[in-house]
Amino acid sequence: MSIEAGSVRRSHRLGRALIYGSLAALAAFYLMPLWVMIVTSLKSLDEIYSGSFIGLPSHLTRGGRHGTRPVSAQLAAGYAHISSTHC
C-alpha cells in the first residue's frame, strides 16, 4: 500500500510541475510584448533599426524619437510643437 501511495505522490508532483511549467511558458509568451516595449523605449533609434527588438540595449537613453537630448530639451521641443500647431 505504501508503494501505491508513493507513486501517486510522485505522479501528482509530476503533474504539478507540468502545470506550473506550462503556466510559466504562457506567462512569458503573454508578457513578451510588454518586454519588447520597455526594452525598445530604452534604446536609441540607431540601435533599434540595426538590432533585435528583444535584446537589451548596449547603453540606456531617454531620447525616444528626439535622440539623446536631455528631458528638459525634449519637453521644450514638445511644447514648441504643440503651440505652433494650435495657433
Defining key terms:
single chain, 87 residues, mainly alpha, 2 domains, 3 helices, 70% helix, rod-shaped
What do you see in this structure?
- By secondary structure, the chain is mostly helical.
- The protein has 2 domains: 1-32; 42-87, no CATH class.
- It has helices at residues 2-41, 45-50, 71-85.
- The chain starts with a helix and ends with a helix.
- The mean pLDDT is 75.
Supply the helix-strand structural class.
Answer: mainly alpha
SSE run: HHH
Per DSSP, the total helix count is 3
Structurally, the number of domains stands at 2
Strand fraction equals under 5%
In total, how many beta strands?
Answer: 0
Shape: rod-shaped
Report the end-to-end length measured between terminal Cα atoms: 86 Å
What integer value in Å does the Rg equal?
25 Å
Report the mean per-residue pLDDT as an integer.
75
* Helix residue percentage: over 70%
Topology, please?
Elements: H1 2-41, H2 45-50, H3 71-85
Briefly summarize what is shown.
By secondary structure, the chain is mostly helical. The chain contains three helices and no strands.
